[in-house]
């Protein structure tokens, strides 16, 4: 079986904490290489991510990687956060720029994820394995696709060890992205980010915000299933597992699942993989 990793978000209520515990326990049975926990830009969840990492690592015994997003943060705040993760025994980070909620806050002292990667390398050289984000369908704010590739290459040159993609449902976008960055001399693993489908209207909202395309044929089939939750889940698991199989057959080094703290949609995909 290909290596896999799971992404969670930090729970804020007791119910959400119980749900994360349940999900982490179920997904641990699939022997992930590591799990990660997202970070809310703008400071809203400054403590939630470290607390969740502590829980995933200390209570569940998982290799847990915090996401660190730099927008809105000061050098001193990020330095303190990195020290905290080091003291907790973390060896892997997902380093991102993040997005400030619209109209909120000062952009902070780091402009791009490249600046954060450079900072982590200079402050903690060799301690952290650094993952970064990348966008087979192009980051929505980039001037154009080639500029985005060039900025990604600069982020890798600053010291990234691996990259995880934004989710996508078009395998060709991934293969083309990998070919393009290899031609630029990027050699690090490019791991597809996989978004299982369980709630189509939520997925549509996420996709509009992050610039991921939902192919028309998928949207049409999902609309036809309407409120039939079981049919949406079945169809979603079929198409996402077919996507994963194509990616694995085409050479993807591992798969990173955006779980949204739910075990069932990810397990439905995993159970269909060869
Ligand atoms: P960057 O790499 O800094 O790129 C951002 C934009 O700036 C791109 O358009 C790029 O082309 C452009 N750019 C880069 N350098 C330059 C330059 N020198 N000059 C001009 N333009 C430049 N968000 C969160 O808030 N919390 C999370 O936990 C989180 N986890 C994520 C995990 C993954 C795997 C991915 C793919 C995304 C995640 N995000 C998260 C979303 C991410 O923060 C947003 O997509 C954000 O808009 C960009 O972050 P980045 O690190 O890719 O930015």
Automatic annotation (TrEMBL):
EC number per UniProt: 1.5.1.54
Keywords, ordered alphabetically: Amino-acid biosynthesis, FAD, Flavoprotein, Methionine biosynthesis, NAD, Oxidoreductase
Names of required cofactors: FAD
One Pfam family per UniProt: MTHFR
Catalysed reactions, as listed in the record: (6S)-5-methyl-5,6,7,8-tetrahydrofolate + NAD(+) = (6R)-5,10-methylene-5,6,7,8-tetrahydrofolate + NADH + H(+)
CDD domains (UniProt xref): MTHFR
Keyword Oxidoreductase: yes
Family recorded in the similarity comment: Belongs to the methylenetetrahydrofolate reductase family.
Protein name from the UniProt record: Methylenetetrahydrofolate reductase
Organism: Luteimonas soli
């Amino acid at each position: 079986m290909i290596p896999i990793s799971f992404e969670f978000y930090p729970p804020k209520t007791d119910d959400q904490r119980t749900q994360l515990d349940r999900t982490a326990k179920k997904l641990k049975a699939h022997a992930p290489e590591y799990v990660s926990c997202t970070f809310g830009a703008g400071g809203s969840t400054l403590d939630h991510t470290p607390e969740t990492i502590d829980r995933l690592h200390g209570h569940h015994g998982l290799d847990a990687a915090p996401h660190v997003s730099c927008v809105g943060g000061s050098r001193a705040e990020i330095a303190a956060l990195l020290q905290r993760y080091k003291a907790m025994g973390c060896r892997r980070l997902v380093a991102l720029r993040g997005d400030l909620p619209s109209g909120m806050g000062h952009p902070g002292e780091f402009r791009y994820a490249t600046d954060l990667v450079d900072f982590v390398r200079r402050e903690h050289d060799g301690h952290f394995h650094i993952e970064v984000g990348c966008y087979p369908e192009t980051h929505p704010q980039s001037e154009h696709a080639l500029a985005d590739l060039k900025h990604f290459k600069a982020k890798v040159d600053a010291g990234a060890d691996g990259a995880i993609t934004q989710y996508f449902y078009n395998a060709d976008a991934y293969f083309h992205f990998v070919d393009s960055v290899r031609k630029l001399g990027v050699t690090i693993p490019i791991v597809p980010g996989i978004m299982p489908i369980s709630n189509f209207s939520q997925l549509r909202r996420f996709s509009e915000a992050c610039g991921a395309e939902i192919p028309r044929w998928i949207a049409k089939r999902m609309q036809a299933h309407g409120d039939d939750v079981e049919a949406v889940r079945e169809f979603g698991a079929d198409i996402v597992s077919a996507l994963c199989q194509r990616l694995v057959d085409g050479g993807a080094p591992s798969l990173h699942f955006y779980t949204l703290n739910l075990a069932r949609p990810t397990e439905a995909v995993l159970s269909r993989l060869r």
